From TrEMBL:
PANTHER family: CRYPTOCHROME, CRYPTOCHROME CIRCADIAN CLOCK 5 ISOFORM X1. It comes from the Bacteria. Keywords: FAD, Flavoprotein, Lyase. It comes from Novosphingobium ginsenosidimutans. Its cofactor is FAD. This is Deoxyribodipyrimidine photolyase. Residues 74-208 form the Cryptochrome/DNA photolyase FAD-binding domain. InterPro entries: Crypto/Photolyase_FAD-like_sf (IPR036134), Cryptochr/Photolyase_FAD-bd (IPR005101), Cryptochrome/DNA_photolyase_1 (IPR002081).
């Protein structure tokens, strides 16, 4: 599997996977055959993460090929991504808490030699648990793991190696091509038993042996009786989503961020006078596959946007945005909604500075997010049951009547 950081390569992978996205996916998706064989899953996550290819495009293509019944499992998996994004968007304080914990644990690592050694053994893939050590090598070398391997990895990290889940999530975040604050942080919490309190995911040797294509059999090496983690904090309140602003026409500048690199499908009205790209949604290890994918994806989007809108694309830091916008003689900066995470935190300050200059940031929300994020108030079930209605409303299923 080669992850090339362009929209064209993402669409090519989608076309290649499409025949397998129906019943075959539902039957075989849980098997991790290893890095040489990714034919049973889409491996689209690095492209979807940045919306080089969008959820709507993927769902529409799969529906056109297989119809809803056969493609339901695959579509539900895509919707898990949306569920985690929505869940975090409704409870942004969760990521701030995670970040504070992560920083405190990093400081503890410096001071606590014993913890440092145990962490280093895990992060270097030197635990002696062959499957775990192989996943570390795969993660470092390819920047990607199969979903089941991610679940096993997180479970072994938390319950067998007894390391803090936040350090594991941080380790993943720095190496994954698809590193996403919502999917990553909340999946680690789910494995730990903190998302659905008291329900954790325990990796079992028998399950690993059965689903790893005969590669691993860690009998006797895992703690298969560990209890879920718990935390002594009340559930976070749900903050309703603010109404998404619209771009009501008029000249504007565009800001591309790694949260949405398909500006060609943004709901734009006015004339585009200037474009800038803002790097840095992730904190990938320098020169890692993840860092290279991230840089390549931004370059691809900048080139596409330039060609599509007929305007040069500049590279700016968050700090430079207000001055750059003023230089372009513009007062409206349009971007796609930036979900909770590093860029959203940076843009808070930028937005205040723009307002002080009499300019404004308009963050457009895609219809997919607008309809589905508010359903992430509790468990996945609510969103899952409403999916067919949302798909019909968006006109993604050629076989379903379009609802207005
Ligand atoms: C501990 C842990 C950490 C994770 N961290 C991330 C992360 O940082 N970024 C990320 O995109 N996914 C993350 N996932 C979810 C999932 O493992 C990957 O999205 C999936 O493995 C990607 O492979 P694929 O593209 O072949 O998925 P497919 O099975 O082909 O599914 C299609 C798409 O649906 C989405 N998807 C599928 N399963 C999930 C899921 N369980 N949660 C969220 N989205 C899903 C992905 O966008 C994926 O590309 C994590 C899971 C775990 C258990």
């Amino acid at each position: 599997m080669e992850w090339i950081p362009t929209r064209a390569a993402g669409l090519e992978r989608l076309a290649q996977f499409l025949p397998h996205a129906g019943r075959a996916y539902a039957e075989r998706r849980n098997i991790d055959f290893g890095p040489q064989d990714r034919s049973n899953v889409s491996a689209l996550s690095p492209w979807l993460r940045r919306r080089l290819v969008t959820e709507e495009e993927v769902v529409a293509a799969v529906l056109a090929r297989h119809g809803f019944t056969a493609a339901e499992k695959f579509i539900q998996e895509v919707a898990w991504r949306t569920y985690w994004k929505g869940w975090l968007e409704l409870r942004p304080a969760m990521l701030e808490q995670f970040d504070a914990d992560r920083i405190a644990l990093k400081a503890q690592l410096e001071a606590d030699r014993h913890l440092q050694r145990r962490f280093a053994r895990a992060a270097e893939g030197a635990t002696g648990i062959a499957c775990f050590d192989a996943w570390v090598e795969e993660l470092r070398g390819h920047g990607w793991l199969h979903n089941h391997a991610r679940m096993w990895f997180a479970s072994v990290w938390i319950f067998t190696l007894r390391l803090p889940w936040q350090l594991g999530a941080d380790f993943f975040y720095k190496h994954l091509l698809d590193a996403d604050p919502a999917s990553n942080t909340l999946s680690w919490r789910w494995v730990a038993g903190l998302h659905t309190q008291g329900k954790h995911y325990l990796a079992r040797a028998e399950n690993i042996a059965r689903n790893s294509g005969g590669r691993f059999a860690p009998y006797g090496q895992l703690d298969e009786a560990a209890l879920p983690l718990s935390e002594d904090v009340p559930p976070l309140p749900v903050t309703p989503l603010a109404l998404a602003p619209r771009h009501d026409g008029g000249p504007c500048a565009l800001l591309l961020t790694e949260e949405d690199l398909h500006p060609e499908s943004w709901d734009l009205m006015g004339e585009i006078k200037a474009i800038a790209v803002l790097p840095g949604a992730t904190v990938a290890v320098p020169d890692s596959p993840a860092a290279r994918f991230s840089a390549g994806a931004l370059a691809d989007a900048a080139a596409r946007a330039s060609a599509h809108f007929g305007v040069d694309c500049a590279k700016v830091t968050a700090n430079e945005i207000p001055a750059w916008l003023a230089q372009q003689g513009q007062t409206t900066l349009v971007t796609a909604q930036v979900p909770v995470g590093l860029i959203a935190w940076q843009l808070r300050t930028v937005e205040a500075r723009l307002a002080a200059d009499g300019a404004r940031l308009v963050a457009l929300r895609r219809a997919w997010d607008d309809l589905l994020w508010p359903l992430a108030t509790a468990g996945f079930f609510k969103l899952k049951t409403r999916l067919p209605g949302v798909i019909a409303r968006l006109g993604l299923d050629p076989a379903a009547p379009r609802l207005l």
